[in-house]
Design brief:
heterodimer, A: 10-stranded mixed beta sheet, 4-stranded mixed beta sheet, 20 strands
């Protein structure tokens, strides 16, 4: 389309927009309303979710999730976990530990046995005095605890544990360092091997996990880990995550449906207006086609008309969002990146709806003849032209080869062609001449069977729908079916002939035998 | 006007067929062979239901035949897709509908200008030719009126001016006088004759009014979808 044509069609589209201004205004209101409602509602859900998460942030841990496994039960290896998605994306780090409860000079404490190169505790602690765990019998404690109990580096810390049937074990630890944690609920740390010995535990009883997604994914992770460890206890950033989870579930489940409904409302509204407008504009489109307006020019004009309504609708929607937002108390709590995300999502959905709204009339305008646009009740979108056997079957194919007939097969229902048969046996036909037509799916699909050659309709079987055409020129080539169709049929015919010969021979033998008797 | 050898028909049909399903298959156009030479006025006459309008729709590419061929300037149009047909019509065919079919929200001038604008003519040239054509059909004072502000005869004259806009090879007119009173009818037929003489424009008109045949170089009579007679005469 040249610049002049582009300009001419743009002028025409602007005139059309004036003519159809109330229809376009309807689209504009639908888009602006649905778009702003979608963004505001999504933002509200996001703020609600943030409130749920915020409650959890008062308690921090060095890991994202700890599975507390009962004594005697195994820690599952990462590769034994049933959902690969979490193994790959979520379980960035998993680490075993041994927790024991011991009586110490600091009172009853939970000592955590870790490896000296523990990912979680090396990352989240800072040794402020002394050194990190390195030798058996080492212990380091949070500085806060050390201050509280006036502990010194090198102090001997006895620890008593109670295990099976009330029996006690005692171990002596050497205080080698103080640390400041970047998390709450800090415990004294010892080496994993020491912890196992003290409790006579052969295996770890804690499994710590770090995930690499946002909070919403953690909820999935927790749910899934609960399915992997159905009877165990879990520790994660705070127990309020459970509350947050429930809250989010309650909010998001109906909320998501409402978001879908908003766009369904917009989609159905825009499509209905587009369809009604198209039906009223069929004559106009027909005239445009009759004076030589090409399909791309029609598409451009329609896209400009409806696209303008859609774009202005989205821009007005954004204006509404910020205007209304300034009067809503929670709106200022919406994270900017979330707001832009929702605006982007809303704009994308709007774009899809507008494309669907424009596609239907433009497809119809493209495929329809001028007369169909002017007069036809149904306009077929899919046109199929068939001039040979679409699914050649053996026997018919064999007859094509042997008897020099050219077959067509119509779609029959209960021995009747659900369409128009234009030729009868004995009628002459020309190559490409339409022999039968059929409309399907409310006229949206149109089949046309055309004669494959010049000739005469030699036979027609209304039960099967096969019509055989005898060509005028006996040398008319057949449709080039794939070679294996022909070979399969020749093979089949040979087998049939062999079977018949065998049957004849057996019959002859049996008759001879009978006569001899 | 598109160049054409005067000895070759500008419009030709070869064994043209079109059938409709009305309980049974009815051939509205049955094996029609006609030729129209450049610079002719050809009039197709016949009673109602004889297939005239169907034939004209096929000639203009507004509908598709079930078999046969249509040649315009020796170019077959039956195998063109809808987009190619639109381009072909833009260059070669002007179409005058019985019910005018002007675009309702455009003025008379804009209706005439539109085919030229979308055919890549400059806006100035298109406007000048549109004014010239409207002047020729006697509608200069009504140039800025919309179709609903024009009478039937005036609308038909705008439609004729529009059909001539791109200097097509042939103008096809479907009952152009069918909805007009006798005075307006004479005015419209006079227009066809004038453009035929001054611009050597080829016209194919269909009508059931046999009194118009005196203006034609070629009179084609149809009955039951078939060509009954073809008479060549001096109008």
């Amino acid at each position: 389309m040249s610049l002049r044509q582009f300009s001419a069609v743009t002028r025409l589209a602007l005139k059309n927009m004036m003519r159809w201004r109330w229809r376009l205004a309807t689209i504009f209101f639908l888009v602006a309303g649905s778009f702003s409602l979608f963004v505001l509602y999504s933002s509200m859900l996001s703020v609600s979710a943030q409130i749920g998460v915020a409650q959890t942030e008062s308690l921090t841990l060095p890991y994202d999730l700890m599975v507390i496994v009962d004594e005697g039960k195994p820690i599952l290896k990462a590769e034994e976990l049933p959902i690969p998605r979490f193994r790959r994306d979520i379980l960035e780090v998993g680490e075993e530990a041994v927790a024991i409860t011991a009586f110490t000079p600091m009172g009853k404490q939970e000592l955590l046995g870790i490896t000296s190169d523990s990912y979680f505790y090396n990352k989240n602690t800072e040794v402020v005095e002394g050194q990190w765990l390195s030798n058996p019998g080492d212990m380091i404690v949070p500085q806060e605890l050390a201050v509280q109990y006036q502990l010194q580096i090198g102090d001997q810390i006895p620890a008593y544990t109670v295990y099976k049937e009330g029996r006690q074990r005692k171990a002596e630890f050497t205080l080698v360092g103080f640390f400041t944690p970047s998390y709450q609920l800090a415990q004294p740390l010892i080496l994993e091997h020491d912890a196992k010995e003290l409790m006579l535990l052969p295996q770890a009883n804690r499994y710590m996990i770090e995930y690499d997604r946002d909070e919403a994914e953690l909820i999935h992770l927790i749910e899934w880990m609960k399915s992997a460890y159905p009877d165990e206890t879990f520790l994660y950033s705070t127990v309020t995550y459970d509350m947050g989870n429930e809250l989010l579930q309650q909010i998001f489940q109906p909320g998501q449906w409402l978001l879908v409904l908003i766009f369904l409302f917009m989609g159905i509204g825009v499509l209905t207006v587009s369809l009604i407008t198209f039906l009223e504009r069929r004559r106009e489109l027909a005239v445009m086609k009759s004076i030589g307006v090409s399909n791309i020019q029609i598409v451009y004009a329609l896209a400009l008309e409806q696209g303008t309504a859609g774009i202005v609708g989205v821009l007005t929607g954004i204006l509404i969002i910020f205007q209304l937002g300034s009067r809503i108390s929670w709106f200022s709590q919406v994270l900017p990146e979330k707001l832009y995300l929702y605006i982007g999502q809303g704009a994308l959905f709007t774009l899809l709806v507008m494309i669907a709204g424009i596609s239907f009339p433009t497809i119809l305008a493209k495929v329809a003849t001028v007369n169909q646009l002017l007069f036809a009740r149904n306009i077929p979108i899919v046109n199929t032209h068939i001039d040979h056997l679409a699914k050649p079957t053996g026997w018919i194919l064999f007859r094509e080869m042997q008897e020099n007939l050219h077959f067509l097969k119509f779609d029959m229902v209960d021995g009747r062609l659900e369409g128009v048969l234009l030729k009868a046996v004995g009628d002459p036909v020309k190559q490409g001449e339409v022999i039968a037509t059929q409309e399907m799916y409310f006229g949206l699909r149109y089949h046309e069977w055309k004669s494959p050659c010049d000739g005469v309709v030699a036979e027609y079987n209304p039960n099967s729908g096969h019509m055989g055409i005898l060509p005028d020129d006996p040398n008319t080539p057949h449709y080039p079916y794939p070679e294996h169709f022909v070979q399969d049929e020749i093979h089949h015919q040979k087998q049939m002939e062999a079977g018949r010969a065998k049957a004849r021979a057996e019959k002859e033998i049996s008759e001879i035998g009978f006569n001899e008797k | 006007m598109t160049m054409n050898d005067n000895n070759r028909p500008i419009l030709e049909t070869v064994n043209l067929n079109k059938a409709f399903y009305l309980g049974e298959a009815v051939y509205a156009v049955n094996n029609v062979n006609i030729q129209v030479m450049p610079g002719e006025i050809a009039i197709i006459v016949g009673p109602s239901g004889s297939g005239k309008s169907t034939l004209l729709s096929l000639l203009g590419g507004l509908d598709r035949p079930i078999s046969g061929d249509i040649l315009i300037n020796d170019q077959s149009i039956v195998k063109l897709n809808e987009d190619q047909l639109a381009l072909m019509r833009r260059k070669n065919i002007g179409y005058v509908f019985q019910f005018f079919n002007l675009i309702p929200h455009l003025s008379a001038l804009e209706n005439v200008e539109l085919p030229m604008s979308i055919a890549n003519m400059s806006r100035k040239e298109a406007r000048e030719r549109a004014r010239y054509l409207l002047d020729e059909v006697g509608l200069t004072p009504r140039a800025h009126h919309r179709p609903d502000q024009l009478s039937g005869g005036e609308q038909q004259r705008v439609a004729i001016a529009r059909s001539l806009a791109n200097r097509p090879a042939v103008v096809l007119a479907d009952e152009p006088t069918g909805n007009l009173d006798s005075r307006t009818r004479d005015m419209v037929i006079d227009l066809f004759c004038r453009f035929n003489k001054t611009e050597n424009q080829t016209f194919v008109l269909i009508t059931h009014d046999t009194s118009l045949t005196k203006y034609a170089h070629r009179v084609i009579t149809m009955k039951d979808g078939k060509i009954n007679t073809i008479e060549v005469q001096n109008p």
